[in-house]
Design brief:
With 116 residues, the protein is an all-alpha fold. The chain has helices at 6-65, 68-94, 100-115. It has three helices and no strands.
C-alpha cells in the first residue's frame, strides 16, 4: 500500500482519530475517578465538621441537664470523629500534604475529650 494514495491517507487519519479518542476516554475515566475520590473526602470533612458541632451540643446539654446519656453520646461522636480523621491520613500522604495538621487535630480532640 502506497502512502501517496487517498485510501492510505484516509486509513492513517482514521487510525489517528481512533487512537486519540481512546486516549481521551482513558484520561476522562482516570480524572473522573480522581474527582469522585476527592468528593468523597470532601464529604468526610463536612461530616467531621458536623460531628464536632454535635459533640459541642452534647457537651452543652450534659452541662445543662447532667444526664449521662449526653456524655455517652459525646463519647460516641468523639469515636466517630477520630475514625473519620484516620481515614484522611492516606489522602494527606497521597497529595503530599503535611500530616502534622491531622496529628495536631487528633491530639486536640483527645485533649478536648479528656477535659470533658
Amino acid at each position: 500500500m502506497k502512502f501517496d494514495s487517498i485510501k492510505s491517507r484516509l486509513v492513517l487519519m482514521t487510525l489517528i482519530c481512533v487512537i486519540g479518542m481512546g486516549v481521551l476516554v482513558v484520561s476522562q475515566h482516570y480524572f473522573t475517578q480522581q474527582l469522585i475520590s476527592l468528593n468523597q473526602q470532601r464529604d468526610v470533612l463536612l461530616r467531621m465538621g458536623q460531628d464536632l458541632l454535635q459533640m459541642r451540643r452534647h457537651e452543652k446539654d450534659f452541662l445543662l441537664r447532667h444526664y449521662t446519656s449526653y456524655f455517652d453520646d459525646f463519647l460516641e461522636q468523639s469515636y466517630l470523629f477520630k475514625g473519620r480523621l484516620t481515614t484522611l491520613i492516606p489522602l494527606f500522604n497521597e497529595y503530599k500534604l503535611p500530616v502534622a495538621d491531622v496529628e495536631s487535630l487528633s491530639t486536640s480532640i483527645e485533649a478536648y475529650s479528656g477535659a470533658f
